[in-house]
Amino acid sequence: MYILGIDLGSKYLKAALCVKDAETDEITVLKLFKLPHKASKQGTVIDVVKAKEAFGTLMDKLKLEFSEQIDYFVLSISGDNVNSYSGTSTIPLWKQENEDRRVKITKNHVNDVLKAAKMTAYNKDDKVELHSIPQEYQIDDQPATQNPIDMYGVKLRSSVYVIQTDKSNMENLTSIPESYSIDNHKVVFAPLATAEAVLDEEDKEAGAIVISLGDQTTELVVYLNGILRMAKVIPFGSGNITKDLKILLKTDYATANAIKKENANAFSKDANQEKIIEVPNSSAQKNEYTEEHISKITEARLKEIYDFVTREIYKGSYQRQIHSPVIITGPGSRLNGADKLFSEINNSRTVKGKVTGVKGKAEDFTEDYFTAIGLVKYAVRNDIFGDGEDSEKKKKIWDRLKKFVSDLT
């Protein structure tokens, strides 16, 4: 089965063409694509025409380099108009005719309490649900459980984490593949895909905090006891650092971006106080700044972004419950000192994220493609296309039948 993960980022469309093994569910990355575009701002599509053009260019490249048919497409969605909310509800299990009132919990009870919990979350007619993630269940005063089925009780309580977006935002995004007669697609919240790329099930069970620094946005994902607890997008990224350098160093954007990558250090304590960096400007002369000065500009903006992140983490008291190293990833994580600065601010060990759970050339799996690869991994792990074993068996039978017919002819 061939699956294409498509991350329509703020500046580039990144795609990962993968194949899933029908027997083992093992994922292999076959090809990676990266195409510039000007269709999005801070993760949200603002020009559907340009987005369709970029998508069309990707389809053309696929036709040239890949002859097989793609079974499924997974698109990322992000931006300010994707929101997440928690809902909680309790339902009675007993009926009046049941004398002892204790009832054996079924799948229907679970569905009922989840539906009631979702209704308590923020919900409007102009919203569409992207993901609904059950948290723990509690039966009467018993300890919390993740699977209450076949247990006995009088009342069942549950909470659910709902991620939703504007209907118009979803329609804008899904119209892109549909304009090319592609309807076998699903949409996944980008932070979930990014986190999926760098986490395995053991990481989620132990508890994990993932921070992904993009160009125009920063993603935050928190897992605890194997359950998604938080997924947020903060509308600031490493591109804001470039803008600060452009203004304060009095230079153009391209030069500021190059200085950020080559000379800046987000952890200014490591910067050289004496090293001089020449910065060209619009005049014939060049301005001169110390490496320390440039690093302090960089540090100030990244610290502001990290402050937003840490406030969200502490809202849920997750820092006290998760003892694993914080994972930092995304293109912005390549900035010198980005991991050190967060470690100092948050008083935690920080590591760089690496793709896990897929096969392919590891050297090709740079931070640029983490979300695209994670989209495919998320789709397979959560079976979002509803294939299941039956669909795989039907596909194998059909393939054998086609081979049998071709042998006869």
Description:
- There is one protein chain.
- The protein is an alpha/beta fold.
- Helices cover 37% and strands 30% of the residues.
- The chain has helices at 48-65, 107-120, 167-178, 190-198, 201-206, 238-248, 253-262, 291-315, 318-321, 338-346, 370-381, 388-408; strands at residues 2-8, 12-20, 27-36, 40-41, 44-45, 72-77, 82-92, 103-104, 127-139, 152-153, 155-166, 185-189, 208-213, 218-224, 227-234, 276-280, 286-290, 326-329, 350-352, 358-359.
- The strands form 6 sheets. The protein has a 6-stranded mixed sheet, sandwiched between helices.
- Helix 10 (338-346) links the parallel strand 18 (326-329) and strand 19.
- The longest helix is centred in the C-terminal third of the chain and has 25 residues, at 291-315.
- The model is unreliable at 388-395 (pLDDT under 50).
